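Handout, section 4.2: multi-component inputs.
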Amino acid sequence: MIKALVLTGDGINCEQETAFALYQAGSDAVIMHVNDLIAAPTRLKDFQILALPGGFSFGDEVSSGKILALKLRHSLGDMLYNYIDSDNLVIGVCNGFQALVKLGILPKSQLRAQQVTLTHNRQKRFINRWVHLKVKQDNLFCKGLEQFPLPIRHGEGRLMVPAGQETAFAADMAPHIALAYQEDVNGSFLQIAGLVNEKGNVFGLMPHPEAFIRWTQHPAWTSMDEAEKAAMTPGQQIFNNMVQALRN
Amino acid sequence: MPPLELADASPQKSFQQAQQVYRVDVLPMSLGVAEKRTVPGLGELYSHPVYWLQGADLKPDWINRIAKELLIDPILQTYSVSNVQSPVFPKLPQAPMIDYWVFERQFLPGVTDNLGKTVERNISLLFPNETLPDIKVASGEVFWSLGTSLPSTELAQVVEYQLYNPLIQKMTIFPASEAGNQPARYHFPNVGSVEQVQVETISLELSDEALLQLSKSRCLALTLEEMKVIQTYFQRDDVKAKRQGQGLPQWPTDVELEIIAQTWSEHCKHKIFAAKIEYTDASDPDFPITRVYDGLFKTFIAGATKRVQEKRPDLLSVFKDNAGVVKWNDTYAVCFKVETHNSPSALEPYGGALTGIVGVNRDILGTGLGAKPLFNTDVFCFAHPDEPHADRPTMLPAEAILQGVRKGVEDGGNKSGIPTVNGALVFDPRYRAKPLVFCGTGGLLPLKVDERLGYEKYTEVGDTIVMAGGRVGKDGIHGATFSSEALHEDSPVSAVQIGDPITQKRMMDFMMEARDLGLISGVTDNGAGGLSSSVGEMAELTNGATIHVEKVPLKYPGLAPYEVVISESQERMTFSTSNMHALEQLAKKYDVELTSIGEFHDQGAFNIVYHGKLIASLDLDFLHNGLPQMNLKAHWTHAKSKPIRAEVPDHIDEIFLKMMESPNLCSREALIRQYDHEVQGRSVIKPLMGPDQTAPCDAAVLQPILGEPEGLVISNGICPQYGDWDTYNMAACAVDEAVRNAIAVGADPKSIALLDNFCWPDPLPSPRNPDAEFKLAQLVRANMALYDLAVNYGTPLISGKDSMKNDFDDGVFRLSIPPTLLVSAIGKIPDISKAISMEFKRPGDTIFLVGRTNLHMGASEYYRALGWYSQYAPYVHVAMTRRLYPALYQCMQQGWVRSCHDLSEGGLGVALAESVLGGRYGASINLHDIIDDSPELRWDEALFSETPGRFLVSVAPENAEAFSDAFRSRYLPVMKLGQVTEDPTMTVRNVTNEAILLQIESARLRAAWQKAPARCYSQEGEQ
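Output:
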């Protein structure tokens, strides 16, 4: 059975629904406190999936995902980078995505240094609403999906690149843009909503796939007919794709 | 711009032992990515974060590394490190070459600084192989004003409450050209040294006048009668003898007096709700009727629950714990509590609202053996910033209150990982001085933890008293009674608390595991009164407890024992455990600080020991039952004015659009979007639903247990505007609104349980409060209605709260809030797929009005918009509505109801507009049947009457007949009004002919409805 590790602790708060989505996808999902993992880092090897769920690790103090990234880098270090170099899958949602970016794992894992950032929305406030997304670069996580809705729930989801290097980054990043917003929701560079690394096994995204794993989570579900609700939800599809890819 | 670092050439060696302060300015790489905000009067301001790091023997290398790796975002920011020996004033990149003003904000000593603390605790991550000396960190903000013509003397006043709150922060203002001469730039906010703390004995051998003076000067808030009860107690021979034997002085120590005052406070003992009240109803002055009620709580609130209890076997724990507990299924129970945090929010809105939320979360954590919070619900009552209102020097600007509370809720709810699922916002100028901030939380409890019941407590003699979470400072000591003038530069700020959601989140995670491992035998939260209340209350479980006060971990030294015991520092829970060792091991994993501070026993007393010496021993019976019952008088008269009404106005569409954009009716979307309402993945009916996420739903529905069909419904009812007519009507309407909202989304009427939250103007007589007896009568009448409705609906009251002093009085100006009752409801829907949202869904669907419309125009939005007056405030015909709701529920269970929206403020007109605006279609209705049913209504009144107990329902045409039969066969009122139309326009037609009375396209409606000034709900940049 595919085993998935869902990290929690220090203010992470979407661990239960993330584990539930992975469980529904057919994996054996274990929620583990980040301090338990640090106490015995080799345990990471028992899992083929690592999920960094959403939340407010360290209260988003200094900047979102920053201190969690430092903690993981300094306490897991190479263990984490080697994990990514093998054929495991990593998903970071919202705060988990912010941590992956600040760890330097996204967009390019090989660099091991922060390349872009996720910072305060252009509106300078937290936003919770459902947005329309479009898959740009084909990737195993979004297999079978083209355009779909998911909720965003973040204050710091605006992807920014170093000032003056926009053109270079636009070209360089293209193969990494897994997911884009169909409209400009937070000022994000190229409307980027999610990134995938060069190997295609690490996926980070600001929208919450684990918040759309049953139709009754959609804001317009009360208007949908039965046929529409019979299909798999896009959020669940992403977790199913991960488990499926590992089985193949 | 390259980072500006400090070279490792430290000054003279002799300085090295002293505490050094380094300063790190975190600067934007370019002006384009700089934080920017606009302050009225100052124009545009740029800002950047600043940190002060203090320690002995600090190496500049360390500081440089901390700046580079921890404090900046390398993509957007750079930094500058300096100290007072080598001061540096970093210029903003690309800043214009003009002189400008600089504002530097720093927290006052002792104020919770979450950012500073987070940095402080995580510096060690960067130095895994080195042992660094202790480094203290404080955070602040630097603002740069690039263009103002204001004279320097006015700057401080302009930025007060805009950029800082003097209660918790200080602001240093200087022109950039004088930056070199600002030693304050290197000041670290240390808590000043304090004299050795002593325990005092307070003699009560005093005259009446002196007793009252003592109560006042020590902020005890006790009446003369209460002071005399304490005086008499300590004069009793048996008490004297016992105290002598214990080595205690005859008169109480300050610790004892403070504990008694806390325990006997209105907040903890609900003295007004326990009072014996002689109530006179003189609405007919010739035949006044007088009755005596022995306690409003006992008579009306507990009384109602007692009446309905036998039909509600699901009630597991009511009124006795921190929250009411109701059985959910065979494995779980749900609990619910709503608190108020009004006074703190008036002083420091951000901290007040934030602690309100994390505080009520702790009520849930402290229920039974500890429940997991599932949702928050928040209700605010404010003065609208655009309305004219009084300003007094000690009153915060209305806008600052609104903004601060908004941000506090955002941080409190979002950072805790608890969704804010619904709420309400009420504007009235009388909330100008005392805003009302109601914070509610619901939670999930296992029915059983091993062999124990999850909703009971099992604290035993010999159990350890454990304090967990935050440390103790002077926060919240004596609440807000200290004026800011009494504080001097170095004194820790005691009047306000600021919450730390992440410390509490860690504790929450820890508690859930500790509970499931059976390590907790009892738990309660530390809120008002701090340890004196939490341990004092838990002591009743075993009949005694002892605290060793020196064991309590402190934020800073210098707290007197009485301060430690009554401090309201946040993020703390009190547990009892018989397995301290295992609990400590678990706490380490969660980074939760845990301290054994004493033990439970059965000696009948609450004891405090300080370094081995007994400094307080209070008989539990005296402490909890010694408070005398108050005797109060209430006097009700019914003043009636002459009705005012004119012909139907010519441009009623303009009037209607004005109503739609008014503060109490406009869309709340801008506010709702800032609160996470979906975290935990349980949402079913969200605050905004429909194809464009604009449909304002009447209540929230959640899936408490992932993957299971049952849904939890949460709703609120609040309508203070009707209280000016009669608080009986107001309270009845509030109950009905809460129940009605729950019914509207599909709740089973038999499952609903209620909470009551009273916020009242002071009903105790004083020279400055001449109409206290009337205010008390208003309270009595609200309670009567609460009882009548709860009993008729069969909806038990399971928990509640009262806040009885919502008056502002600075000796010149007095402002009292209108009597306000919030009723909150929880209920169950057996299958979430049957939940209903409010927007119209399909053209051709038949629109029905369920319920009867009467001439209820008093306080109506329509009459208020026109300046008209009616004697008749909305009234609940509960004998009918109690039968109506189950009938509607059955139709929903049949699947006949496509949309359902309750009618409240603005009546049918507003409900119809909202049902249109929530979807993409229009509606065409005719008022004929309504007026036929109630001929006293003119057509505009039929459209805007606010009679409670009504719903606007759309039904597929094929089910329309079955739907209306379901009501007609029971002789219940249902009226067919018209159809949902493809054309997105709202059309209302005449009674007899088909002439159009009112027609508005939804685009116009939407523009008005969403016009609400953005500044009410959001802010570019933040404080």
